[in-house]
Design brief:
The protein has 23 helices and two strands. It is globular and about 65 Å long. It is mainly alpha-helical. It folds into two domains: about 1-190, Up-down Bundle (Growth Hormone, Chain: A); about 215-295 and about 315-380 and about 470-510 and about 545-575, Up-down Bundle (Growth Hormone, Chain: A), CATH 1.20.1250.20. Helices cover about 65% and strands about 0% of the residues.
Length: about 575
Amino acid sequence: MSYASPYLLSLGLSKPFMAVVFLAGPLSGLIVQPLIGVLTDHSKSRFGRRRPLIVISAVLCCAATLLFGYARSVATLFTSSGSSSNNSLTIWLAILSIYCIDFSINAVQALDRALLVDTLPTSEQPSGNAWAARMLATGSVLGFFIGELDLPRWLPFLGRVQLEVLVVLASLLFISTHILTSLCVKERILVATDSGSKGLKKEIRNIWDTLTRLPRVIRQICYIQFFAWIAWFPVLFYTSVYIGELHKQVSPPPGDGSSATALEEEATRLGARALFYSALVSLTTNIIMPLFIAHAKETATSSLLQAKNTWLERVRVHLATLWAFSHFLFVLCMAGTFVVSSVGSATFIMSVTGFCWAITQWAPFSLLAEAILSHSTTDEETTSIYLEDTRSNRRSTMGGDEHGADETQPLVDSDIGELMSSRTASPEQEEDCHYPRIMMNNEARVSQTDQMPDDASLLHRPKKNVNGLSSQAGAILGIHNMFIVIPQFLVTGLSAIIFAIFDPQKSVLHGHHPGNALPVNGTITTSGDVTAQLLDRDDDPSVTARPNSIAIIFRLGGVSATVAFVLCWRLARELKRT
């Protein structure tokens, strides 16, 4: 996405229309994730609830990514190269691909997170989400190195320019990892529900009902995320611009065009370097900090075992406490913008925020997953969906049933119709039945429903949804993402107002999506060049006397982070008591 702005600008797209293009990100997060979560929660595919749409969305995302990189080549197939119609078609293909990328990647992200909740028990949620954060941090660090390489030189058979090679590599990595995940994961499978078919209106109503009935802990996490991301979006959008402008303020005014270009390139390089340091700190934090997290059982019994604990066990803290500390540290970093005047000190501050970013990518998702899995539904919340735990071969007993609800063996026949007819057989016949092998996963087994024919097997069915909120994990994660996305609209509007007051010549447009900045190389325009293209700098040296508008936005973000810290500290105290 770092290449989106310079590429479209080079094609002649206007800046006002660029703002419409950039709405794809927040709109897709606001719309797609909740809807895709609800749809997959009720999916009855024999391949699982999440995996079919993960594969489909991944394929669509790769196709859109390739279209973005080869938009000019595709347009040339239908129009004459160099003509105005060719330019127009290239622009529209690039815009279409950006929207498809954003919408499909949001679907994949939502389902990846839901799959973590579905397949891991509560005790392993912190570890699983920590690994997810490590993968994100690793990708960020590797992105800098890939951006610095001359890819057409090393891989000329993949494309003639940097962007073409990059989209091929990204697509291959993306689709291969998700296909591997889909083949190897052990997923729970829904056979049927009594809710019948659902239309879009019903799905939206379902999302609203889930939103209004969120348990207290989940609702608190969403509120914290709302204020935290008001603080985070300015840092993710404007860090490289902020450090670049500090460098320009202490540098002598350029005397000619070549000097101005050199100054812009140096400012971009320094901004990218700060983001690189932040990514390194984030990766290191994600590797080390999970060792210092106390599990719930350890927290409850710490007073009894304190004498026997090692030094590592004594310094362990609750995950919510660590999350609150990261907000406090972020507030200090934003307060530091009052005294920062050099590139070095600003780089240090933004590097420290890498610690906070690592916790942000890990703690809330882990706490949310634990809250979903540990919450037991009431009778009013009960639905007709029953999902067996297919991650274990242990027998489970429910309602005093000595036979258990999971005493059948793997099926040879995977036909769902035969499966349902076999579920209505006598208990003796049930013990000879088999579950289907799902996507080369012999341990994945189908779920049951709580609405079965009136026969002897009815005694062996649970009377309500014993899975609690886990059957609604997709919808809840989608709602959680809404509280992350909405602040982006607020930050964009607030930034526009502040820029209009303190820096009228600055554009509110940002050159990259969060965390995706790449350093400049000698041949291809990257996110740093976006900054140069989207900022209409005034050559008047008096510009340095103006208040730093980006620093003002950072400080307002610090105020929002303070609210997030207070709410998170209260949540940590509440979780420690339970």
